[in-house]
Amino acid sequence: MRLILSTAFLLFSLSTFGQSSKRLIIEVGKLYDSEQKKFLTNQKILIENGRIKDIGSHIGKKTNIEYLDLSQCTATPGLIDMHTHLLLHQKQTGDGMVIASKVPADERIKQGLGFARENLASGLTTVRDLGNSGQYLDIALKKQLAKSKTPTPTMYVSGPIISPPGGQFSKMAPADSFVIKQEYRVVKGAQDAREAVLEHIKQGVDVIKVCMNTDNRVLAPDEIATIVKTAHEKGIPVTAHATFDESARDAVKAGVDGIEHGYILSDSTLMLMAQKGTYLVPTDVTREQARILVEGIGMKGKEGEDYAKSFLDGVHDRLKRAVSKGVTIIAGSDYYNDIPAMPRGKGAVGVILSYHEAGIPVNEVLQYATYNAAKALGASESIGNLKKGMKADIVFFNGDLENDFGHVLFDVKMVMKDGVSTYPKGKANASKK
Q1: Model confidence over 245-262: pLDDT tens digits?
Q2: Residue 423: which pLDDT band, with cuts at 50, 70 and 90?
Q3: pLDDT at residue 424 in the model
Q4: Which residues cross the membrane (predicted)?
Q5: Which residue of 10, 161, 208, 390 has the fewest CB atoms within a 10 Å radius of its CB?
Q6: From CA 195, how far away is CA 256, in angstroms rounded?
Q7: What does residue 184 show for φ and ψ, rounded to 5 degrees?
C-alpha cells in the first residue's frame, strides 16, 4: 500500500502557483472551445478568484497581475471521466475481484485518494464513480477529496450498484459470495427496488447505477421502471450497466439517463436512445491498452492480436453507428486495473484516444469528455467549457493537441483546479507584468 501511494505522489508534484494570487493571465497557443467544437489560436485567459473572468485574444497586458506564458500549449476544459472505480484496484487474475474486495475499507480510501491525484495529474478534474466501492466508501472518499488542502478532482458518486441477485457475477464460490453483499445492493421485486433507491438517496449519492444484466440474470422490467421513477422523482439521474442489446433496450424503455458500456447495440436500440435522449458511455480501450490487457490474460502472438482486433472492430463499429444516429456520447474509462504498464491516470485518459482511433475527429472526442459530460452531470453552467464565469478547471497540454492528439493527450504541462495550478512535471515559470 505504501508503494502504491508513494508512486501516486511521485507522479503528481504538488507544487502550486496562484494559490495565494487571486488574479492571473495565462497565454496559450491554442484553446479548445467545447461548445462549438473548435480550436482557437493565440488566446488569453484571465483568472480571478477561481473563475474565468475573461477570455479571448483581446485581453491586453495589465499591471500588478501575474502572467503565465504557455504559448506552446493547448488549453482545454478540465477533462471529465464519467465511469471510474477509484476504490477498486484489481489484478488480472480469476480471483482479482475477490482479492481487491478484501482490502480493508480505510486502505481502499487511501488508495482512492492516490488514484484521484493521479487522475488529476492526467487532466481529469471531475470524475463520476460508479460503484465497486463497498457500502458507500465512495461517499467517504468524496468528502475527503472535498476537504483536501491540495487540488483534487471533484467527485460524483453512486453508492453500491443496484443489481439482480448475484450482483454482476454468473456464479461465485460460496466463500467468495461476501463480495455480492459488500459491493452491491441486490433487489428482489419492485418494492425492494424502490427502497434501495431511497436508501441511496438518504446516504447522499449523486446518481443511481444499476446493473441491468449479468451473464444469466437481468433486472425485471418492473424493477428498473420503479428505480427510474423513484430516482427521477427525487431529481437523481440513473445510469445502467448494460453490455448486451436486449438489456440496454429494456433500460432505455424504462427511461434511464445513460447506458454504460453497450458493447453490443442494434441500430434500433441506438435509434431509440437518440429519440429519448439517452446517452452512451462507451468504456472502450486503445490499441495499446487492448494489447496489454490481452497479454495480461495469457493471449500472445497472433491469437492475442486477432482477439484484440475482433473486440476493437466491434466497439469501433458500434461507436460510429451511435454517432451517425445522433446518440450523445460521453467519455468514461471504467479503468480499475492493477497493471504496472498502464498507470491509473494514463489508463483513464486513454478512453478519449480510443474514440479517435475509432475514426471520430479530435474536435468531437474532446467534447465527449468536456461539454457532453458536464451536461450529463447537470453542471454545464460551471464546468465543461472555457468561457466567462465558468470555474477555472483547465488543462494545459504541451504542444498542439489538435494535430498531434495521440502524443500530446498524455503530455500535461499544468492542471488548474478551481483556479489553483498544479504541475505534474515541475513548476512552470511565472512573472509579474
Answers
A1: 999 999 999 999 999 999
A2: confident
A3: 81
A4: none
A5: 10
A6: 18
A7: -130, 165
- Separation of alpha carbons 346 and 332, rounded Å: 13
- The Cα 411–Cα 424 span in angstroms is 10
In this structure, which topology does domain 2-78+383-432 adopt according to CATH? Answer: Urease, subunit C; domain 1 (2.30.40)
Q: Which residues, 6 or more positions from 33, have their beta carbon under 8 angstroms from its beta carbon?
A: 39, 40, 385, 386
CA distances from 319 to 6, 178, 266, 312, 354 (A): 37, 36, 11, 10, 10
Domain boundaries in the chain?
2-78+383-432, 79-377
Least confident of 164-178, 222-236, 256-270, 319-333: 164-178
CB 231 within 8 A of CB 197: yes
Q: What is the dihedral of CA 284, 289, 291, 294, to 10 degrees?
A: -70
How far apart, in Å, do the first and last CA atoms of the chain sit? 45
pLDDT single digits (tens) 44-77: 999 999 999 999 999 987 778 999 999 999 999 9
- Grid cell in block for residue 165: 441477485
Give the residue with greater pLDDT, 110 vs 430: 110
Query: Which amino acid would we find at residue 144?
Result: Q
Angle between helices 267-276 and 301-324 (to 10 degrees): 40
Distance CA 336, CA 135 (A): 18
Sheet holding 79-84, edge to edge: 79-84, 124-129, 154-157
pTM of the model: 0.93
> What's the fold here for domain 79-377?
TIM Barrel (3.20.20)
